[in-house]
Amino acid sequence: ASPACTELEVVMLDWLGQMLGLPEEFLARSGGEGGGVIQGTASEATLVALLGAKSRAMHRIREQHPEWTDFEILSKLVGYCNSQAHSSVERAGLLGGVKLRTLKPNNKRRLTADILREAMEEDKRKGLIPFYVVSTLGTTSSCTFDALDEIGDVCATDDNVWLHVDAAYAGSAFICPEYRYLMKGIEKADSFNFNPHKWLLVNFDCSAMWLKQPRWIVDAFNVDPLYLKHDQQGSAPDYRHWQIPLGRRFRALKLWFVLRLYGVDNLQKHIRKHIALAHHFEKFVLEDERFEIYEEVTMGLVCFKLKESNEVNEELLRTINGRGKIHLVPSKIDDVYFLRLAVCSRFTEEK
Q1: Fewer CB atoms inside 10 Å of the end CB: C or N, the chain?
Q2: What is the dihedral of CA 256, 261, 266, 268, to 10 degrees?
Q3: Which of 133, 139, 143 minimizes the C-alpha distance to 46?
């Protein structure tokens, strides 16, 4: 009932997609079926993609095995992600009622083609059907990037597998051409998501999601009662079919304000400044022999710790957060507790 809201959302997601350098088939302006939609959070986008993947896999498997019941097909479906992926990926599996395997990444915390291929082949031998893979660009704990390009090749060998890319935090940096090498292989994905509300100066909630074939989502979600029918059906995206809730807010407006107010150049400056500040802090850590850097610094996140036990680092975090000046969030990988400094505010300065 609000064509202006729909129209602005279509245009904003095309603008944003162009800023990131997304392949044309994700954009509405390509004239194909692809396009973008604003979800509430990345957790929602992961679940929506999983439900689309499930709908597509069931449709294809029914054609190959008409004798199988829906329950039999469902019990065979299995999805995959890096064990360092956000907890919402695991939750999407629970909500979607399918098995989801968290795979142990390599020693650089990356999910690679070999690890994924081995897991998929093992499951196929057990009679299971791989249908969904989440590749994380910028893991929550340490901002590590899965090997998207080679994962895309593994997924491409199987018609039933949907590749979803979750770049919730780090995706904002792709507006800077020098960081796009980290999303190499994005053209092999079926869906892509990042959160402008994390690092692109847009107020919560605004999670941008692009789909090459939204019809699978629409098929999964579409119930069309008479009171929701209208004369313009089919002439524009019916965004209620692209998401879990029926109603939606006019979130494209705040995106429009930020893009108009800052312009691409200033948004790029904002991202580059934060990354430079993170490296500035990294330098301080390296100059102090009591501390060490725990993971490589790529974006505005610095993972560091005292060269002491987990308990001492926990005590340090309590002290810092207890003062109420800055707030750090810890994490733990391979039973090592470390602190994470994330540069988030537009008011943070070198001094």
Answers
A1: C
A2: -10
A3: 133
Residue 271 CA to residue 241 CA, distance in Å, equals 33
Q: Tens digits of per-residue pLDDT, 211-244?
A: 999 888 887 777 666 556 666 666 677 787 888 8
> What's the helix, strand, coil split of the chain in %, to 5?
50, 15, 35
Identify the band that residue 90 occupies on the pLDDT scale cut at 50, 70 and 90: confident
C-alpha separations of 255 from 38, 78, 90, 207 in Å:
10, 36, 29, 10
Work out the burial of residue 113: count CB atoms within 10 Å of its CB; fewer than 13 is exposed, 13-18 middle, 19 or more buried.
middle
Q: Is the dihedral of CA 27, 189, 184, 244 positive or negative?
A: positive
Q: Name the residue ranges covered by the structural domains of the chain.
A: 3-258, 264-342
- pLDDT band at residue 22, thresholds of 50, 70 and 90? very high
State which amino acid sits at residue 57: A
Structure tokens that stand for 89 in this block: 């990926």
> Does the model's pTM come out above 0.85?
yes
At a CB cut-off of 8 Å and minimum separation 6, what does 276 contact? none
Q: How confident is the model at residue 177 (pLDDT cuts 50, 70, 90)?
A: very high
Q: Compute CA 40 distance to the chain's CA centroid, rounded to the nearest angstrom.
A: 12
Q: Residue 67: what are its φ and ψ, rounded to 5°?
A: -80, -15
Q: How remote is the C-alpha of 43 from its chain's centroid?
A: 8
pLDDT in tens, 31-68: 888 899 999 998 899 999 999 999 999 999 999 999 99
In DSSP terms, 207 is beta-bridged to 39
Mean residue pLDDT across the chain: 91
Is the CB of residue 305 less than 8 Å from the CB of residue 268?
no
Domain 3-258 -> CATH class: alpha beta
Q: How far apart are CA 237 and CA 249, in angstroms?
A: 15
- Per the listing, tokens 């809730």 go with 245
Q: Which runs of E-coded beta strand occur in 196-290?
A: 207-211
Q: Which fold has domain 264-342?
A: Aspartate Aminotransferase, domain 1 (3.90.1150)
Alpha-carbon gap, residue 10 to 195, rounded angstroms: 17
DSSP secondary structure string for all residues of 185-200: TGGG-SEEEE-HHHHS
Nearest CA to 165 out of 183, 178, 179 is that of 183
